[in-house]
């Protein structure tokens, strides 16, 4: 190689190496600024927690090794909380009568264990309504990293590779830069230098072709660019708080998963959890950071191949599915299929395009067969509905990289056509991921039918004996195929959820409408009778009061009902005030509304400035849409299925919510609402016992099997007897 050419190659390598080092330094400074802002906030929260823990808890930590007399002496000396013990230190503790050197060390050791646990448990909450200097500093520190987005992560990854690879090569290639140096180096050294020079040339050319120098330069600029001012940082946080919290967790979480590692792993058996943690997760095609529990969920889907991800609503099941798809795409798979209800198809295509670099192909509407042919030829992530799936020819064995079924409880009936279609596709695919926050609603057998599609051998091993024997045996049997985490376990920063049951005394008109429905034996009419006379409706009057209170505070409200007729009544009641300028009214969102218009209504509601109201039928509004713009939820009546209420509320109280969510459930005294609540509570206990945790739980009640039809019939008969109104 000519001297000039060698110098040019080395010069290009040095410039690229310096750019990589500069980017890494900028990224480290940005990350360190976040840690410096977060550390005092987190430490104060941990100390507050320790100030609430009485000193006698130290005996539990040591499992009795710390004598009760020592603990009593420490408490008598005024050190009555764990934090006061830590503040005292060894010297002061040893001055307490009856506390020797060994006892003082034991007391401090136990206190430090609790301090470590507290530090892992507490989470910093960024209150957008009550900003203070320290939380503002943290938001401002996070802002450039969030603003830089996934490109900064890609740039940092490329910079790390260049920093590790080019440094040694440049040192090795030194003798190739000049004739005298080559002559003095000796033959073996010259050969190594020339080889290193050639490798530098290859790497710099490949980096230039991939646009790496520009990526590094832009990332450095982005990381050094802070928010325009503090207010701008808080506005940006409110718009995309999930990204801020996700990045904060990524920076501050410990490698082992922190305090709630067991919860993040769904309380799976240790051996299974370790196998999942060993699963690699390639993020080449992913454009979003993952929380620790989300990374585990994606790895679980990949390691176990055919599973149910049953996370509670609001924990990002879609993101976890996309992470698994992105990993498989990086491994060479080209075709993926997502099956979902029609109402969430648009949301899925949006998420694929925004959160990954994968190609999204909607298989819906009149052109779905042409789109299917295009997908078969070009690849990507196809998104279709349960109904449309039945009209497509099946994939060849091994052609499909992964099948994802959203709201998978829709295929719980093994005889239904959509269930058969999903089962047929699943049989030809190695990786199958079912997503559902409600894997069973009435019968444990429904949950078993989902497992049967994924793992027939596991389902056959779960007999009726396991079911009636109790939930522990059931969960242990399905652990390899089922992972569930709950919000309270893994989203410690989530704002409070406040439930209020609003019991209203029926008006005379309400009671007459209710008796008419009872005489007719019409269960559905009984449930909506409180709105049959709008001008005299006690529930409607309370609903208007709640909306007016929210309007005064500039808060957004979602009103849910199972009945389109009830939403019509509410729309009429609220329409006048909305037109008078107290807020905007959107909806109703219902099964009658086309998916595209449904998404426009939700988008408009979220984009509205200040107070707004969205009306939604609970079965449509509780599935697949994100309503974290709302901080007030009103349920017009109790639901027979507790999962329906939980899903609907979780659309607002989810990752990304920055304000406390108030839920108001409107209930009528002395009637059907009380009976529905009792039945709902029984179903909720069944779900808790069998499906809320993946495995490991306390003793559980026996399984009950009450269908909605038999429940309605029994309530109608009881009410007819109570009111003497048998038809």
Give structural notes.
Residues 255-259, 465-469, 578-582 and 695-706 have low confidence and may be disordered. Helix 4 runs antiparallel to helix 5 (101-121). This protein has a seven-stranded parallel sheet, with helices on both faces. A six-stranded parallel sheet has the order 8-13-12-9-11-10, sandwiched between helices. It has four domains: 3-41 and 129-235; 45-121, Orthogonal Bundle (DNA polymerase, domain 1); 263-489, 3-Layer(aba) Sandwich (Rossmann fold), CATH 3.40.50; 496-722, Rossmann fold, CATH 3.40.50.300. The protein is of the alpha/beta class and 727 residues long. Helix 19 (417-427) links the parallel strand 5 (402-406) and strand 6. Residues 298-457 form the Helicase ATP-binding domain. Keywords: ATP-binding, Helicase, Hydrolase, Nucleotide-binding. InterPro entries: Helicase_ATP-bd, Helicase_C-like, P-loop_NTPase, SNF2-like_sf, SNF2/RAD54-like_C, SNF2_N. It comes from Streptomyces roseus.
């Amino acid at each position: 190689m000519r001297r000039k050419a060698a110098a040019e190659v080395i010069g290009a390598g040095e410039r690229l190496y310096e750019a990589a080092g500069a980017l890494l330094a900028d990224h480290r400074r940005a990350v360190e600024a976040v840690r410096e802002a977060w550390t005092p906030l987190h430490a104060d929260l941990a100390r507050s927690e320790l100030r609430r823990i009485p000193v006698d808890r130290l005996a539990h930590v040591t499992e009795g090794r710390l004598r009760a007399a020592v603990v009593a002496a420490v408490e008598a000396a005024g050190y009555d909380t764990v934090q006061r013990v830590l503040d005292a230190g060894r010297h002061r503790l040893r001055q307490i009568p009856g506390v020797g050197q060994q006892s003082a060390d034991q007391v401090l050791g136990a206190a430090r264990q609790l301090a470590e646990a507290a530090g892992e448990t507490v989470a910093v909450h960024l209150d957008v309504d009550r900003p203070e200097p320290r939380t503002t500093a943290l938001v401002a520190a996070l802002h450039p990293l969030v603003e830089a987005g996934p490109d900064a992560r890609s740039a940092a990854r490329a910079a790390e590779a260049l920093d590790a690879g080019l440094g040694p090569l440049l040192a090795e290639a030194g003798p190739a830069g000049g004739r005298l140096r080559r002559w003095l180096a000796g033959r073996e050294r010259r050969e190594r230098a020339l080889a290193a020079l050639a490798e530098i040339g290859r790497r710099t050319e490949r980096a230039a072709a991939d646009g790496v120098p520009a990526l590094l330069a832009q990332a450095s600029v982005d990381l050094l660019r802070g928010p325009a001012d503090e207010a701008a940082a808080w506005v940006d946080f409110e718009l995309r708080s999930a990204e801020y919290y996700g990045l904060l967790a990524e920076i501050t979480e410990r490698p082992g998963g922190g305090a709630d590692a067991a919860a993040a792993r769904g309380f799976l058996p240790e051996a299974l959890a370790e196998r999942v943690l060993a699963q690699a997760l390639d993020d080449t095609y992913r454009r979003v950071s993952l929380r620790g529990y989300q990374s585990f969920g994606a790895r679980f889907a990949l390691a176990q191949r055919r599973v149910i991800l049953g996370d509670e609503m609001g924990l990002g099941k879609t993101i976890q599915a996309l992470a698994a798809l992105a990993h498989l795409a990086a491994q060479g798979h080209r075709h993926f299929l997502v099956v979902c209800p029609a109402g969430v198809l648009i949301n899925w295509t949006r998420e694929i395009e925004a959160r990954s670099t994968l190609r999204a192909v909607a298989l819906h509407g009149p052109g779905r067969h042409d789109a299917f042919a295009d997908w078969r030829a070009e690849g990507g992530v196809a998104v279709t509905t349960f109904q449309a799936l039945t009209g497509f020819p099946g994939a060849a064995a091994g052609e499909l990289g992964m099948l994802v079924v959203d709201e998978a409880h829709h295929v719980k009936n093994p005889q239904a056509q959509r269930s058969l279609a999903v089962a047929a596709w699943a049989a030809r695919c190695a990786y199958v991921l079912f997503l559902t926050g409600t894997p069973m609603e009435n019968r444990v057998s429904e949950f078993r039918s989902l497992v049967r599609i994924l793992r027939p051998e596991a389902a056959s091993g779960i007999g009726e004996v396991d079911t009636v024997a109790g939930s522990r045996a059931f969960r242990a049997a399905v652990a390899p195929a089922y992972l569930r985490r709950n919000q309270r376990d893994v989203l410690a920063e989530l704002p409070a959820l406040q439930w209020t049951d609003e019991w209203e005394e029926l008006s005379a008109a309400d009671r007459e409408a209710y008796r008419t429905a009872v005489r007719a034996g019409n269960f559905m009419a009984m449930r909506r009778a409180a709105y049959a006379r709008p001008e005299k409706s006690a529930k409607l009057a309370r609903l208007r009061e709640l909306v007016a209170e929210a309007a005064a505070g500039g808060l957004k409200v979602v009103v849910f009902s199972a009945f389109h007729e009830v939403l019509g009544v509410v729309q009429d009641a609220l329409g006048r005030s909305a037109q008078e300028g107290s807020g905007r009214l959107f909806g109703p969102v219902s099964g009658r509304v086309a998916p595209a218009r449904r998404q426009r209504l939700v988008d408009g509601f979220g984009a509205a400035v200040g107070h707004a109201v969205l009306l939604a039928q609970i079965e449509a509004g509780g599935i697949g849409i994100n309503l974290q713009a709302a901080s007030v939820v009103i349920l017009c009546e109790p639901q027979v299925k507790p999962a329906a209420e939980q899903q609907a509320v979780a659309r607002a109280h989810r990752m990304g919510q920055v304000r406390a969510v108030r839920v108001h459930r409107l209930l009528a005294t002395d009637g059907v609402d009380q009976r529905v609540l009792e039945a709902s509570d029984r179903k909720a206990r069944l779900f808790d016992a069998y499906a809320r945790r993946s495995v490991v739980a306390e003793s559980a009640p026996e399984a009950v099997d009450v269908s909605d039809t038999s429940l309605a019939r029994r309530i109608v008969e009881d009410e007819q007897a109570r009111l003497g109104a048998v038809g």
